Amino acid sequence: MRHAYSKYPMDIMKPVRILFVCLGNICRSPLAEGVMRALARRAGYGEAVSVDSAGLGAWHIGHLPDRRSIEAAKAHGIDITDLRGRQIATVDLADFDLILGMDRRNVAELQRLASLETMHKVHLFMKFAAGRNDNVPDPYYETADAFEALYQTLEAGCSSLLAKLVRPS
């Protein structure tokens, strides 16, 4: 019998859809989306791993990611300027396989929105990805250095997540 996931690109039996969620969808979650897309593409899994991001609030619908997130991504060869802020919708809870909140408050709100049928999809990003019960800090009121630290955290978490998704069962 074939494993659900294999180490070979495009050998994932069922594509996985991942939604990263933060408060406003302009700092953490769009950067996570960009990082995960880039890592999946570089590893040859671009078609098998579908990634999106959303915010819990409606403040930034239609807006570009924060310029500091854009700059942090660009410094690592990732372009997130095609992303626009959006608010999570009820349909997202059904449509995505994994819904990963950036911090415990995000996860608590996502669990409040989820039904019994979709609750199992909601996880704290770093706990699910890397086995660490850590929040991804919101750098909104911080300096550019905090956004570089955010990038490093997300890159490590997304690398662990991708490895977890393609590891044979």
Structure, described:
The chain has 169 residues and is of the alpha/beta class. The chain has one domain (16-166): Rossmann fold (3-Layer(aba) Sandwich), CATH 3.40.50.2300. It is built from six helices and four strands, in the order E-H-E-H-H-E-H-E-H-H. It has helices at residues 28-42, 67-75, 90-95, 104-113, 125-130, 144-166, and strands spanning 16-22, 49-55, 98-101, 122-124. Strands 2-1-3-4 form a four-stranded parallel β-sheet. Helix 1 packs parallel to helix 2 (67-75) and helix 2 (67-75) crosses helix 6. The radius of gyration is 15 Å and the shape is globular.
CATH architecture: 3-Layer(aba) Sandwich
Structural class: alpha/beta
Number of helical stretches of at least 4 residues: 6
Count of beta strands? 4
Mean pLDDT: 91
Rg for CA atoms: 15 Å
Please tell me what the overall shape is.
globular
Low-confidence stretches: 1-10
CATH level 3 topology:
Rossmann fold
Query: If strands are numbered along the chain, what order do they take across the biggest sheet?
Result: 2-1-3-4
State the end-to-end CA separation.
11 Å
What's the CATH H-level homologous superfamily? Response regulator
Q: Strand count, sense and closure of the main sheet?
A: 4 strands, parallel
Fraction of helical residues: 40-55%
